[in-house]
Amino acid sequence: MHRGERRARRPNVVWSVFVFLLASAVAGALAAGLALPFAGLVGVTTAKAHDSVQYLPQDLETAPLAQKSIIQDSQGHTIATLYQQNRTPVTLKQISPIMLKAIVAIEDDRFYEHGALDFKGTLRALLRNQSSGGVQQGGSSITQQYVKQTLINKARTPEEVKQATAETYERKIAELRYAIAVEKQMSKGAILNGYLNLAFFGDRSYGVEAAAMHYFGVHAAKLNLPQAAMLAGIVKNPTGYDPIDNPQRAKARRDVVLRRMQELNVITAKQAQDAIKTPVIDPAKVRVIPSGCANSKYPFYCEYVVSKLKANSAFGKTPEERENYIETAGLLIKTSLDQRIQAAAQTSIDQHSKSGDQAVAAITMVEPGTGLVKAMAQSRPYGAKKGQTAYNYNVEKSYAGGFGGFQNGSTMKAFTIAAAIAKGVPTTYRINSPQTINLSGKEFSTCSGTTSDDSYNPSNSTKTIADPSMVDAARASTNTYFLQLSEQIGLCPIATIASNLGMYDAQQLKPLQQVVSFTLGSAGQITPLMLSNAYATFAARGMYCNPQIVTSITSLKTGKAITTPGPNCHRVLSPGVADGVNYVLQQVMAKGGTGAKLKFGKSDLAGKTGTIQNNHAVWFSGYSSKLAAASVVADADPPTDDLIGQVFNGKKLSDASGSGTAGPIWETAMQLALHGLPTSKFVRPDDKIIRGNVKDLPYLKGMTPADAGAKLLSLGFQVRMDHGPRVDSDAPAGTVAWTNPRQEDGAPAGSTVVLFISNGSKAQPPTPPVTPPVIPPPTIKPPPNLPTCPPWDPKFPKCRGR
């Protein structure tokens, strides 16, 4: 290097040293509260100073302020607040003028007179602190403090936070350089506003608005002199001057602020003295804003909401990123929770169970046609103590708190009914259904082939007539009927409909297994949310909606809506098929049905009981056209055991059933939830769905066989006399007692009607013959999955279809 070049660069180095010494003298002193001696600066090289100043960026990049998110119910009431920093940003006009004066007086009284650095004030503070041997007065300008808070707010990792707060000369020089740029780019008012929104005021309160609401229960715009002085004083040491934990120190610090304001003629001596006489805070007005779902009135519902938000990839690539976004982005999250219906659900749970029971109870309530999840309630409260739980028994195991469901027993028969009706099976279709049936080795077709059980001899848990119709079998929950029906129509149509209605294994998060006992509810674990929403589809006449728990998300900062998954309502069943299911399940709640004791009011109600093997869980799921609900009582503590003998509702169960144990929870909840709403009715299905393609039969009871035969022949039917013994009947001896098919079921045109003759005994008639004459028993088994004729259709008397 030539000597001339060296001389040319020398002034730059000298200037860098000068700038560094000046900045470092201030910044280094600030790093130790202006208590460091100047001798501490000699260890820093001029090269480092040159780099620190010359290569710093000039623009301070800001990050969005961390702002709390709010979860609301369907009516706009807050049910939970989520935050890392409790903050509500406000504009300068939304801050009391006395608050602005107080913070300037104590933190930087020459704020409006100097630039980024107050040389006069800093040197004065430095000399005062040096002479006193301690920290008596701060030296950082409000602009410098704003820069520091901005850099901390931008930090997203512990390492970044450490860098933003490191007590080094380099960081102080960087802050000063940023401060110079900020003063050029922003007005004094904007800087002060930004600082007051960033500053920490203790007790998880960030920003002046959150602090004002927390300590005094007022908005920042309404702060008075003593309140403003306390907040202005607390920012220096939020923990040490905490007015809740340290009221005396907080008052002393507040009074320092008041006296400083008096010295600067911001307030009069009288104003200062009057303010000094006031208490620092009124404990009764302190407002705590708890964070997180654990502090919510509805913790289980809240946690499920948060789990759904964390599953939304729009909020981040990972669950951690999404959680951070949710807690800092300032979101207004509106949910489907209806507090009136939620109260109905919880009241029912509390009435029919106890929190300390061995068995647990849960219920979910959904609105048909919208998928809106109106309520979730369960018997065990939220917590970690004995008798409490963090498990939500209503939902799938898609997050840590989801329990993952229970087997749901005969509530699965509804999907078999739907599949059968969709295939054209009339609700009057009869199958010989003995109390026990041997299905060992019987092959059932599936979506991928066939399945069987080598040793399977299922029985009915209730008594029924020997040849029940679909309605009869549903009313009595006849297992052997529905097993044979599922064998005839195949498991694939049933499983497909169940899947289309949102049913899957809530424990494994996989499709339900197509097993022989599918219709009896042993295909997987099901949740009350899942089942209530599926049954809501029947109530909505075949319109399925995804369960909707988050209805809208809005940015509190911008007021703009944020896209969130909607209910995606779409048709999965024809209205006629859904009407047929409603018709069948409505009979379950009629006289003689397993749900008859649960019927209330004038609205149409439909439902189905469910009990799994060995009574590990019992269910009732039902609905009106306005609301659907599924309730369950189960052993949730592995290894699960029979409910009989377990304590439930404060006493040992001697019996466990869907109608008697889970049913009352459903009944009370629905009765309370539907109270005051207009009466609603189901749409009656087409007669063809109810009875198939049949003609009406005349009323023949009490007619002579000749007259009855002539009547039938004139209507186009064939006639045959039963040649067995005359039957017990209250019809006159020798006259017609009943027919097969029965008069109420009708018969296909041209089919044969069998006449049974009364013996006149006036005894109750026994069960009629079990095999309809026009539908012979199956004789041929076609290969699986090949299109075949329907066995219930008399046009195919040799049919053995699936």
From TrEMBL:
It comes from Kribbella jejuensis. GO terms for biological process: cell wall organization; peptidoglycan biosynthetic process; proteolysis; regulation of cell shape. GO terms for molecular function: penicillin binding; peptidoglycan glycosyltransferase activity; serine-type D-Ala-D-Ala carboxypeptidase activity. In the N-terminal section; belongs to the glycosyltransferase 51 family. This is Membrane peptidoglycan carboxypeptidase. CDD domains: PASTA_pknB. It comes from the Bacteria. Residues 765-794 have a biased composition (Pro residues). Keywords: Carboxypeptidase, Cell shape, Cell wall biogenesis/degradation, Glycosyltransferase, Hydrolase, Multifunctional enzyme, Peptidoglycan synthesis, Protease, Transferase. GO terms for cellular component: outer membrane-bounded periplasmic space. It catalyses: Preferential cleavage: (Ac)2-L-Lys-D-Ala-|-D-Ala. Also transpeptidation of peptidyl-alanyl moieties that are N-acyl substituents of D-alanine; [GlcNAc-(1->4)-Mur2Ac(oyl-L-Ala-gamma-D-Glu-L-Lys-D-Ala-D-Ala)](n)-di-trans,octa-cis-undecaprenyl diphosphate + beta-D-GlcNAc-(1->4)-Mur2Ac(oyl-L-Ala-gamma-D-Glu-L-Lys-D-Ala-D-Ala)-di-trans,octa-cis-undecaprenyl diphosphate = [GlcNAc-(1->4)-Mur2Ac(oyl-L-Ala-gamma-D-Glu-L-Lys-D-Ala-D-Ala)](n+1)-di-trans,octa-cis-undecaprenyl diphosphate + di-trans,octa-cis-undecaprenyl diphosphate + H(+). SUPFAM superfamilies: beta-lactamase/transpeptidase-like, Lysozyme-like. Residues 692-759 form the PASTA domain. The keyword Glycosyltransferase applies. Residues 760-802 are annotated as: Disordered.
